[in-house]
Amino acid sequence: MSSYQPVKRIGLGVIPRFIFAGLLSAAYSLIALHKSELHEGVNDIITVLVGGGCLGLLLVTALWFYERLDSWRTAGFLVAITAGANAVSLFAKYVPESLRQDNALPLLGITEHYDFRLFFPTCLVAFIGSALVLFRPRNALRTVPIAFAFSVLATLVFNYQVEQGRGGWINLLPGDVLGILWQTILVFFLALSLWIGQISINASSFQGSQIRTASAARNGLISLGILIACFSGVQLWSTALIHAERKRDAEHRELVRAILSHSPSRENLPPLEWEPAEEVLLPDIGGCTRYGPQLKILFAEDVLPAVDKAIPRALYPERYSYSATYSDDGGNYIPVEITVYPTPAWASYDVKPLPVLYPGKVWNLMKFGNRIYQFGTSFLWSSGNKVILIDCRLSQQPAIDAFIQAYLKKYPSSL
Question: How many CB atoms within 10 Å of residue 29?
Fold first, then answer.
């Protein structure tokens, strides 16, 4: 028959156990979750919640073997609190810009508020929440000042380590959410907060909870089994995601190869017709003055440029490139380039494959009755044997519309 004994008090022995749990959880987050995120399998929300939940499971496992938990209800609350504490970082983007300015702090020098607004609330929620669950609310309220003080101290240490890493030759421990530095400092100061907090509670007030002697080890093994199943499941998931992405990449490469293989012939091309740059490029548009119109001859390619070797396109024939920049006093600065090919087929070959080459990055737009492409902040289309490119990264919407409309009027889209 199993005997009952009071749940043991939290001592200094919890610190190495928590640090080991933090290191193991950080390694898991780096190897499994971040790998899945790199392969577009998960997003920030899933990474933070699953990673925080696994850290909570590891802490619970350590507390079971350390005989400091009395029930699975308490264990479940601890896991939820740990996951929720790390999830606070997901709301950092909603912090007002006025609170994001860097400050000069004693010992730390210039410190980014980014680290404070992520790490401090995470520590505060984790430390106070863990105390409420382990010490019971009436006793835990007495530990709130201690939890707050250790949250501040943990945040200062975290920021100091991040700043030291940024100023060093190699930043081995960046301040990534759920990274090694994040999790080890969090769990270290969590253990200290619980230990010091419990000292402030009378011994008699902590003796209410009891647990079977044999149950702690059994529950610890169960918790460990849940962890192993979670680790294995995420690893299998990551492997499946990587396999699926490689398959998609192979299919995309084959599609790109098929499209680009149907290139126009470079044989028996008509000669290029030379025109003055001032006639090819429009004069002043919408208050923007044209500067430096010029013509550049692009000779026929014998080999692909280094930047294009990843894409098996055909070698371009000789072509003309006309370019100019437009600007005004309102901050608009708009470079325009017109490339003239020997035939309309070559102009179409340059532009039409773009949505396939860069899926999700090239958009089809209808502008002033014409179909054009938007690639980032640039707009382009083919018109007969010409390709028109308008770079609008340093311009405002009224000027953008004016330029697109003016050039479409002179060079209607062939897309």
Answer: 28
Give the tens place of pLDDT for each residue, 64-91.
Answer: 887 777 778 888 888 888 888 888 777 7
> Residue 309's domain spans which residues?
277-410
Q: What is the pLDDT of residues 20-53, one digit of tens each?
A: 888 888 877 776 655 555 544 445 666 777 778 8
Q: How many residues does the chain have?
A: 415
- Is 265 within a domain? no
Mean pLDDT score of the chain: 77
Bin 239: left if φ > 0, else alpha if -120 < ψ < 50, else beta: alpha
C-beta of residue 194 within 8 angstroms of C-beta of residue 14: yes
Q: Annotate 363-401 with DSSP letters as a single string.
A: EEEEETTEEEEEETTEEEEEETTEEEEEE-TB--HHHHH
SS3 assignment, position 294: strand
Q: How many C-beta atoms surround the C-beta of residue 51 within 10 A? A: 29
Is 41 inside a domain boundary?
Answer: yes
Count of structural domains within the chain? 2
Identify whether 269 is part of a domain. Answer: no
pLDDT above 70: residue 114: no
Indicate if 117 and 203 belong to the same structural domain: yes
